[in-house]
Write a structure and sequence with these properties.
The complex is a heterodimer of chains A (about 120) and B (about 120). Chain A is an all-beta fold and about 120 residues long. Chain A is built from no helices and 12 strands. Chain B is built from no helices and 11 strands. Classes of the chains: A mainly beta (about 120), B mainly beta (about 120).
Chain lengths: ~120, ~120
């Protein structure tokens, strides 16, 4: 069975301080892992994806995520938050051996950036 | 670079009315899917298709029908709308080959209100 747990429904940080959005996953197969961002009233945009080439993955807008198999985690970080980072973030798993690209979404983390 | 196009962007229906949400992609992707997004629940899979003529149910298929007559189009039909179907709907597409480089592309969403 596949599942994704985003540990915080809401995270609030001050501008210029680090961001940490937590994600844990469960997958019966080797997972493909993603973070998507959704700005208000917009669609979903890919931030980054884990491709097994490296456990530390760099994405757009200064975001990074580290795949830790022993902890089944894929936390999203950014060293310094910007006002434009305020959005909802989704951790997503695709179990790559099921033969269909069904995405399993976490429930989302809303990031608020305080000026 | 049209990507995934969803229409309409907004719709208000009365209970019992029917309508079709349109989704089209121009990337020659075999795999297409529909999700609904509800507060605190992330995105949940409604139906998906792995190619023309092939569809299957996702996590929350009740009240929705789909068909896939071409590679490009994957419409979602609500036969008799209910207030519980008030949601934001997203269409996604990706290549069929499941690999660590799989990425899903999303439309901009359809905000549906059933009164």
């Amino acid at each position: 069975a596949q599942s994704v747990t985003q540990l915080d429904s809401h995270v609030s940080v001050s501008e210029g301080t680090p961001v940490l959005l937590r994600c844990n996953y469960s997958s019966s197969y080797s997972p493909s892992l993603f973070w998507y961002v959704q700005h208000p009233n917009k669609g979903l945009q890919l931030l980054l994806k884990y491709t097994s080439a490296a456990t530390l993955v760099k994405g757009i807008n200064g975001f990074e995520a580290e795949f830790k198999k022993s902890e089944t985690s894929f936390h999203l970080t950014k060293p310094s938050a910007h006002m434009s980072d305020a959005a909802e973030y989704f951790c997503v798993v695709i179990p790559i051996q099921t033969g269909a690209n069904n995405l399993f979404f976490g429930t989302g983390t809303r990031l608020t950036v305080i000026p | 670079n049209a990507g995934v196009t969803q229409t309409p962007k907004f719709q208000v229906l009365k209970t019992g009315q029917s309508m079709t949400l349109q989704c089209a992609q121009d990337m020659n992707h075999e795999y297409m899917s529909w999700y609904r997004q509800d507060p605190g629940m992330g995105l949940r899979l409604i139906h998906y298709s792995v190619g023309a003529g092939i569809t299957d149910q996702g996590e929350v298929p009740n009240g929705y029908n789909v068909s896939r007559s071409t590679t490009e189009d994957f419409p979602l039909r609500l036969l008799s709308a209910a207030p519980s179907q008030t949601s934001v709907y997203f269409c996604a597409s990706s290549s069929r080959t499941v690999s660590m480089n799989t990425e899903a592309f999303f439309g901009q969403g359809t905000r549906l209100t059933v009164v």
